[in-house]
Amino acid sequence: MPFPNTVHYGWPAGFPGAWASQNPQRMVVPGQNGFCAGAGGVAVAAFAWVQADGTTVLNTPDAASPKAAPTGFVVRAQQGQATQYLQQNTMTIAQGFMVGLAQGGDVFALASTDATVGQAVYASTTNGTLQCAAGGSAPTGTVDTGWSVAQGGAAGLPIIITGPLAGARSTTATSSGTGN
To answer: Which domain of life is it from (predicted)?
Structure first.
C-alpha cells in the first residue's frame, strides 16, 4: 500500500455495512453449520441470499428462485477472521469464511441511485447492490428487500437503511389473559 498523500478532515458519517444506531438489531439465525461465503466471496454492505443448501451465501439469488427477496444485508461482522494474512483485504468476505446477515435494524449502505427518506430499497439480482425508488416501483433487475431509507443521500454516498423488525413480541394480553 502506498504512503498516504492526502488528509481528509471530514470523516464520513458511517461506513457501509456498519450498524448506524443502537436501535434493535435483528440477525438471520443460521443452521448448525452457520453461513459461509460461496464461490467468489460475498460483498459486504450488499444484500445476499442463502442458497438451496442452507449454508452457502451469495450476492445473487438461488437459481431455483431468481425473484426471491434477499435473505439479509451483509454487515461488517467479520467472525473468526485471522487478520495476519488479510492485511489488505477488501469489502469482500472470502470464500468459505463466515457471513453475518442482518434482517432488521439500521445500517449504513451505499446506493447506486439518489435516496430520499421513505423510499423502498431494492437489491440487484446480479450483485446484491442497492437501488432506491418509490415503493412498488422496482427498478429493472432488482427485487424488493422490505427495507426502507431512513436517512437519504446522493448516489454513492453513505445512507442509512432500516429493515423491518418482524416478529417483535406483542405486549397485549390474549383473550385467555396469559399474554404472548
So the answer is: Bacteria
What's the rounded Cα separation, in Å, for the pair 176 and 155?
52
**Range 44-64 average pLDDT:** 97
Single-letter residue type at 150: A
Q: Nearest Cα to 151, choosing from 109, 90, 99?
A: 109
Predicted confidence at residue 1, as pLDDT, reads 59
Please list the residues that pair with 105 across neighbouring strands: 163
Distance CA(101)–CA(86), nearest Å, equals 21
Whole-structure pTM value: 0.84
Share of the chain above pLDDT 90, in %: 72
* Domain boundaries defined on the chain: 26-80+90-163
Residue 179, pLDDT > 60, answer no
Please identify which residue in the block is written with the cell numbers 444484500: 47
Is the Cβ–Cβ distance between 161 and 104 less than 8 Å? no
Q: 81 pLDDT band (50/70/90 cuts)? A: low
Is there a contact between 115 and 129 (Cβ–Cβ < 8 Å)?
Answer: no
* Residue 133, beta-bridge partner list: 120
Cα angle value 60/142/38 (rounded, 5°): 10
Rg (CA), the chain: 18
Per DSSP, 147 falls in state E
Are residues 80 and 36 in contact, defined by beta-carbon separation less than 8 angstroms? no
